[in-house]
Design goal:
Radius of gyration: 15 Å
CATH class: Alpha Beta
CATH topology: Rossmann fold
Helix content: 40-55%
Number of domains: 1
């Protein structure tokens, strides 16, 4: 029987990667998959690249760039779809691409880690009124549905709260 804990980590900033590395140790993860989404900040992106070399904890790493976000999100979902994770760990609970990824994989528990002061605002804006995302991505969601990728359902997001 395989008792190794598996986890999917999703990060978009150097601080989130640091939190992910700490969570890896805290939860005693045996098999870890990392999804990194690079944004528009070159300094942050370069730090992320450097930190990936500093923390070689991941069994598999998937990269999503700002320029090819939809295509790379689709490819990542397709690659992760057959996996079963004990944990999914991420910080930006209202990020569309993260919620699309999470809606299309199997997992037992979702852990949201704090990556800074934005969490204080997000709690008031999203958690209290139970809003999972504030942006509409109708065109992207329609295209993904045609490609066989499930859309994000907010009721799934709150199943563990």
């Amino acid at each position: 029987m395989n008792t190794m804990k598996s986890a999917l980590f999703i990060v978009t900033s150097p601080l989130q990667l640091l939190c992910a590395a700490e969570a890896f140790k805290y939860y005693k993860i045996g098999k870890a998959t990392l999804v990194v989404k690079y944004g528009g900040n070159d300094v942050s992106n370069n730090m992320l690249r450097d930190m990936l070399l500093e923390y070689p904890l991941w069994n598999a790493t998937y990269i999503i760039t700002k320029e090819k976000s939809l295509r790379e999100t689709y490819k990542t979902v397709r690659a992760l779809r057959g996996e079963q994770y004990n944990l999914v760990l991420n910080a930006e609970f209202n990020a569309w691409f993260q919620n699309i990824l999470i809606a299309n994989i199997k997992y037992n528990k979702r852990v949201i880690f704090d990556d800074g002061v934005m969490t204080l605002n997000d709690y008031r804006v999203y958690f209290e009124p139970r809003i999972a995302s504030s942006k509409s991505h109708l065109e992207k969601e329609l295209l993904l549905r045609v490609l066989g990728i499930s859309k994000f359902r907010p009721n799934q997001f709150y199943r563990f709260l």
